[in-house]
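>> received
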Amino acid sequence: MTITRAFAVATTFCLAPLTSHAATFDVAYTDNDGPQWTGIVDSTTDTFTILSWAEGAGGIGYWTPTSASLPLLFNAVTAALDPFDVPDDWDGTIGNNWGFLSDLIKSDIEWQEGNFSGNNSHLGWGISQVNNGSISSSVGESYFLYTPRSSTGNYLSTANSVSVTSVPSPVPLPAAGFLLIGALGSISLLRGRKKS
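>> returned
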């Protein structure tokens, strides 16, 4: 009876969902006159990834990346370019002290319309790196900056809508496996003692 109870307690404890509370967020950004993309923000890696990107029907003529360029990875950073920890309970608001900058500079992204050579700045969501490389962080989630619209020109985009949907994603902690192995080892010892 002792072994059965110990096994039940150990199994219940070890198989209980030991998780962190990291989350991902589905994001849809729509500028009727420009970029329309969907992506995912991951609070575990503090990244944002654009998965799809199309051009709105408006007259500005923003460039769009080729499908081979997607997904595009962005990192959460502060205005000082230090890493920023995206909260696990993020509400979709990008404050005035952080945002997401693309991993690649714009000239390293393959664009459907041609090669961009205007500057070496990064794309930004909620934060911008202007042509001279300086950072402006008082932008917010409605702005995507600066998307090429010619080989040397780029322009900011203002969203008509931004939707952010939280998708909780439990992340198993590695300790759970060790706890299970330890519990099974203890049970084997208890069985061995009971027989002797």
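>> The two ends are 16 Å apart (CA to CA).
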